[in-house]
Amino acid sequence: MGSKQALYVIVAVLCFSVLLGSGGLHIVAAAPQPGGHLVVAVPIDPDTFDPHRAVAAATQEIDFNIYQGLVSYDAEGRIIPALAESWDISEDGTVYTFTLRENVVFHNGRAMTADDVIFSLNRIRDEATGYPLAWHKQIKHLEIADDGRIRLELKASYAPFLSELADAAIIPPEAVATLATKPVGTGPFQLVEWVMGQHVKLVRFEDYWEKDLPYLDAVTFRIMPDPSTAILNLKAGAVHVIPRLSADVAWEVEQDQNLKLLSGPMNTPQLMAYNLEREPFADIRVRQAINYAIDKDLLIEGAAWGYGSKIGSNMSPVMDAYYVDLADYYMYDPARAKALLADAGYPHGFTVTLSLPADYDLHVKTGEMVAAMLEEVGIRANLELVEWGTWLDRIYTKREYDMTIVGLAGKLDPHTVLHRYESSYPRNFFNFSNREYDTLIGEGLYVTDLVQRQAIYRRSQEILAEEAAALFIMDPNDLVAMGKSVHGWQYYPKYVDDVAHVYFEK
Fold first, then answer.
1. Start-end ranges of CATH 3.40.190.10 in the chain?
2. Separation of alpha carbons 13 and 164, rounded Å
3. Which of 78, 82, 40, 84 is CA-nearest to residue 62?
4. Which regions of the chain carry the CATH code 3.10.105.10?
5. DSSP codes of every residue in 273-322
6. How far is CA 258 from CA 35, 152, 167, 242, 358, in A?
7. Which parts of 359-468 are beta strand (E)?
8. Cβ neighbourhood burial of 193 (10 Å; 0-12, 13-18, 19+)
9. What is the CATH number of domain 3-184+485-504?
């Protein structure tokens, strides 16, 4: 392992030094026992199973079990080997050489080759793919070395490279045409059935390279938008796990002796985005007024039942090495909000549309409470419930909205969190633009010194607060309900459901 590899791993560890309170909580009982069919309740369908095109967190949580990249990450956020058993990094941080793991097989039965890796990485690099990662633009040269290893040369040192590479799934070229509905990866489970609106069924991949995993024979993700329905099925034993349980029904789990409730930070900051290209949000006074009009403590208590941490920028407290506590940057002050609105030319407020993803109960409840608070300062927010697929297209792609509530899934590196606000980022649906911010985000790509990176990203968060780039609300707790016979569930710093380590205690 090259000298630089240790540096990147150390940085990854430091990012999550306080992750989940106890450092990657997992429930351990007796020795894992193989077999069984796990049923997991999830609120929505995946958007696509093509891993190079998927943007929805709901897809990524399932894909984690189907696809793999050269590297991965564990429950503490540390970068670990996956399809590459090891790697070396040059002293200047520009050349990565990966030694591929032997005996890796795709779900279609074909052995993975170095050519497959090159194809997959080049497909991600193709602008036509539309893959939302930035690292592909940093690649200068990509090749198979004489010894069969993958040699990847960057244009310059790029600090988030390994953490971003963890999301770069390796696929077989022959499967591309049908990947959207028939995924073919190398993961511990393979898809056998997807009935939209009903379920996604995975079965154990018998030729998985990591022997002894997975423990389960099969996993079915049942689509259950209604939390109450999910709870009823959990109590009846028709569902075994409910990840991201709605907080308002958590008490039902706590009172049932046959169930258990796990709780840990989600690393998915919730915020209200403004479309800064639409009036009146181009005026910073309006954005600041909205921030002063909102009681975040009340939102957490009312919408999340107290299960959440107040934030002031697009960064979760679990990112301890880079997080800046700006939660009280805008203290609740409706009088100041009204004064700012009047100064901006809106003494009687204005009317806007608040578009909410109908399938996300927390966002809907938060939006309802936000609308009521805005009404107190004269802003009339008309609520619009939008089906998930339509909402995703309108917000992420077309930027056709006034305001919306969104949860942005956390990443392994601060750059991949904060570059969402960079003016050139294709999915900067905020339409936020700040010259100093862009400069800092650009610098953060190439700085490997931890102290320097901390300074860069802490200042970046301060700019987001100063500019009121969004209404940053909370990092909700991830509540997971399950039957007491289920063990091995792990929290991750990203929005994934790792079912490879889950087993039933018989």
1. 3-184+485-504
2. 15
3. 40
4. 270-477
5. EE-TTSTTTTSHHHHHHHHHH--HHHHHHHHSTT-EEE-SSS--TT-TTT
6. 21, 51, 36, 14, 31
7. 379-386, 403-407
8. exposed
9. 3.40.190.10
Give the whole-angstrom CA distance, residue 321 versus residue 173: 39
pLDDT band, residue 466 (cuts 50/70/90): very high
pLDDT digits (tens, 9 = 90+) for 397-412: 999 999 999 998 777 7
CB atoms within 10 A of CB 209: 19
Q: Apex CA 505: angle with CA 499 and CA 506, to 5°?
A: 130
If you average pLDDT over each of 135-139, 245-249, 284-288, which comes out highest?
284-288
Closest by CA position to 471, among listed 405, 418, 414, 419 = 405
Judged against a pLDDT cut of 50, whether residue 3 lies above it is answered with no
Select from 263, 228, 224, 222 the least CA-distant residue to 248: 228
Tokens of 470: 């969004």
* Full-model pTM: 0.71
Residue 196 CA to residue 382 CA, distance in Å, equals 30
pLDDT digits (tens, 9 = 90+) for 189-224: 999 999 999 999 999 999 999 989 999 999 999 999
For 427, other C-beta atoms within 10 Å of its C-beta total 14
Look at residue 384 and tell me whether its pLDDT is greater than 80: yes
Q: Residues near 246 by Cβ (< 8 Å), separated by ≥ 6?
A: 227, 361, 362, 479
- 270-477: CATH superfamily: Dipeptide-binding Protein; Domain 3 (3.10.105.10)
Using DSSP's 3-state secondary structure scheme, residue 202 falls into strand
